[in-house]
Design brief:
Layout (H helix, E strand, L loop, with lengths): L1 H23 L28 H4 L4 H9 L7 E10 L8 E4 L6 E7 L4 E8 L4 E3 L1 H6 L9 E6 L1
Parallel strand pairs: 1-5, 2-4
Antiparallel strand pairs: 1-6, 2-5, 3-4, 3-6
Length: about 150
């Protein structure tokens, strides 16, 4: 008789547990809904639409000439070579943001072909960024990551 009672209880519990899955569908969960994934915002999207690189570069011909013809200072020292990415076109001027300096300074960058431009050296954690104007003055392709030598005055 005990075995029959145990068997009956075992069957009752098994059927009861299997019904839990069916009952769960009757009551919606109270879990919060997943947040909708927003499309990433491209801050440069407004610069597209056939806008030329030349139209984004607002440096004057005199500023470009002065930056390109600035002589190397007698006291300049080599800081190292870095791979640069294009900096924000909205930040005008000739500059490089690099971790090779810890305080702002004056200096210059030089490409492998020997072209150089005077720049402001700006401390920066992360990959080096070269200004849009400097990229253009050095005739560097805007979509590449060129290596430049960095010098401080």
């Amino acid at each position: 008789m005990r075995h029959i009672v145990r068997l009956f209880l075992l069957c009752f519990v098994s059927v009861g547990l299997s019904a839990c899955g069916m009952i769960g569908g009757l009551f919606p969960s109270k879990a919060p809904a997943a947040a909708a994934v927003a499309e990433p915002v491209n801050p440069l999207a407004s610069l597209g639409g056939g806008v030329s690189a030349a139209s984004l570069d607002t440096t004057t011909e005199a500023e470009k000439a002065a930056a390109l013809t600035a002589p190397a200072a007698a006291s300049e020292r080599a800081l190292g070579t870095v791979t640069v990415a294009l900096g924000s076109p909205t930040e005008q001027g000739f500059w490089i943001k690099t971790n090779l300096v810890s305080v702002p300074a004056k200096g210059r960058v030089e490409t492998g072909s020997g072209a150089s431009v005077a720049v402001d050296l700006i401390p920066f954690d992360g990959a080096a960024l070269l200004s849009f104007a400097a990229f253009r003055a050095l005739n560097l392709p805007l979509t590449e990551l060129p290596d430049v030598a960095v010098y401080a005055d």
